[in-house]
Amino acid sequence: MDLEKPPQRPAPQTPEGCLVVAIRLPVRIVVLVLVVPVRMVWDALVVAGRFLTDTVLRPVGRALLWVGRALFVWPFTGLWRYGVVPVGTALGLLGKVLVVIPLVWLYRSVLTPLGHALVWVYARVITPVAGGVWWLLAALGTGVYTGLAWLARYLLVLPAGWVYAWILTPVGHAIAACAKGLAWLVGTVATGIGVALYWLARMLLVLPALALWRWVLVPVGRVLAVVAREVGDALGHAWRVAGRISLAIGRALATLFRLVFVEPVRWVYRTVLTPVGHAVRDAVLRPAAAVARSVGRATREALASARESVRQARADFRRMLFGEPARPERIDRREPTGQETRTLGRSTTALTKD
């Protein structure tokens, strides 16, 4: 098995005409001149938009989101949790007590026996009576239907069949033959007129339009397609070149800004502000923090001694009013000593021996 891919041959390029070569260079120059300012403005807007989004829009959006939660979400959540839900629960319980339980009692105690009684009346009384009435009506209907069917057969169906067979059928055949001949005549005339109009339209409209399409519109369309393709390629090429130019200008401006502003500020911070800050920290902040810690320690000790004095005074006052509290008797829970201790070498212990 051959694991190496065979080298790919480049696709054969079709030769370009002189018209394409003559159009390409001027179009690319003009498009590049027009596109470079647009690309630079676009890149500047992109950078400004990112800076504005990171520094203004995103913090403002977070603040507005927090304010919206504080003004709308949290109050409605509290209202729902501590207002609507308890009220709804109370209303549900009240509805159950006042509506559901009485309706269930009414259904079980009143409607169910009444329904059973109605079912018994329907099954024992109404059903037999309705069956007899239905049988009587069915017998009467069968007799009436038989009589009407006999009268309709001999008064309507047989005379109508004779009229259709001996009068309407011959007349219809004659009318159909006349209509068929008339349709053939009209079709022949219409076919001749249609053929004449077809050739007239072909000579006056189709052939001139075909010649116009073949000898005028197709060459003009090909030229316009070439121009449009070259303009599109020029726009893409000019956009990429403008991006490189804009990137180079942006890097140059960033380098200039760094040399003019950032580096002096960094030098001032490192050589001036940092030593001054260290000196202020060592000479002022640390002694002040040590003094504050010592003052806080002394204050805590004074407060602790004051609390202990107050607690002792309260205990003395309670003993003066109510006397000493009764001390509970101590219960000796230690192991027995001497001969009453448990032994590990014998089977008896101090608790089980005689």
TrEMBL record:
Bias (Polar residues) occurs at 338-354
User: What is the source species?
Assistant: Streptomyces gilvifuscus
Note the superkingdom of the native organism: Bacteria
Keywords carried by this UniProt record: Membrane, Transmembrane, Transmembrane helix
Ranges where the record places region Disordered = 324-354
Task: List the biased-composition ranges (Basic and acidic residues).
Answer: 324-337
Q: Does the keyword Transmembrane helix apply?
A: yes
Q: Which residues cross the membrane?
A: 29-52, 64-83, 89-107, 119-138, 150-169, 181-200
- What is the protein name given in its UniProt record? Integral membrane protein
